[in-house]
């Protein structure tokens, strides 16, 4: 990867927040409106004895249909940031918007898949997928056809009547993705969703997720500390640094769509992997 392709936010020499925001905005999406906007977000955890600064001045926007990954070492504040987008936590300063509306609390417009995010154990796979649409009052027949669609997408038609405890880890995460997307959220938020899976299953899940993304045109905000995973999946990667958590650099991944496992051998893939490995070590 050439130096020119790297767009380090700090290296761009902008003085004020507004300019930094411009730098964080993807060039190719200047015509489309941002789906998610994170503006001047700071997060401090305050206890009686001390204050811990977890995130400092985060500015980032995510365009419609974009697949953006936040990559950073453990403890840099990735989950803290995603939890605020999910509405599970509030920023100390700054604001987060979805389609121009400030985020206060969780909503059906944001689907979530987390590493330890469990399915409802008392519901079957089909009932788990239909749960959100049912809450929203979708009629039974329509719900049935929706869950059929998702069971086929995640290739679990044979497991429609199974309960979560009968499924492998990979299968459970497939159901979790289907359940989140069956709600037709504006954005899918994923926090290290494949972190607990073995290497082979993890790659299968990544391929399935890409297929789903390309087909459904879902907007995805994905979080990982896995460089390989970030490059394979993303259109854009934002790298976070620690002490306190901040955005350090941004890369466009210029590999073609319809990626399969062999894209990992592509010279651009390997070059970006080398550069990111170097960046995360420093
Ligand atoms: N509720 C909390 N109270 C105090 N500190 C927290 C809390 N949640 C997270 N932190 C701290 O904030 C930092 C970032 O955590 P986290 O967002 O989980 O990082 P990551 O997901 O990148 O591993 C860590 O140092 C963590 O200990
Ligand atoms: Mg985390």
What features would you describe in this structure?
The protein is α/β, with parallel strands linked by helices and 282 residues long. The protein has two domains: 3-109 and 186-281, Rossmann fold, CATH 3.40.50.300; 118-184, no CATH class. The protein contains eight helices and eleven strands. The protein has a seven-stranded mixed sheet, with helices on both faces. Strands 3-2-5-6 form a four-stranded antiparallel sheet. Strand 10 (236-241) and strand 11 (246-252) form a beta hairpin. The longest helix has 18 residues, at 199-216. Residues 1-31 have low confidence and may be disordered. Bound molecules: adenosine-5'-diphosphate (ADP) and magnesium ion (MG). Adenosine-5'-diphosphate binds at residues 45, 52, 54, 72, 74-80.
Using DSSP, what is the number of strands? 11
- The CATH superfamily of the largest domain is identified as P-loop containing nucleotide triphosphate hydrolases
Under the CATH scheme, which architecture of the largest domain would be assigned? 3-Layer(aba) Sandwich
How many distinct domains?
2
Which distinct ligands sit in these coordinates? adenosine-5'-diphosphate, magnesium ion
Order of helices and strands: EHEEEHEEEHHHEHEHEEH
CATH topology of the largest domain: Rossmann fold
Q: Round the Cα radius of gyration to an integer and report it.
A: 19 Å
Kindly report the spatial arrangement of strands forming the biggest sheet: 1-11-10-4-9-8-7
- Overall geometry: globular
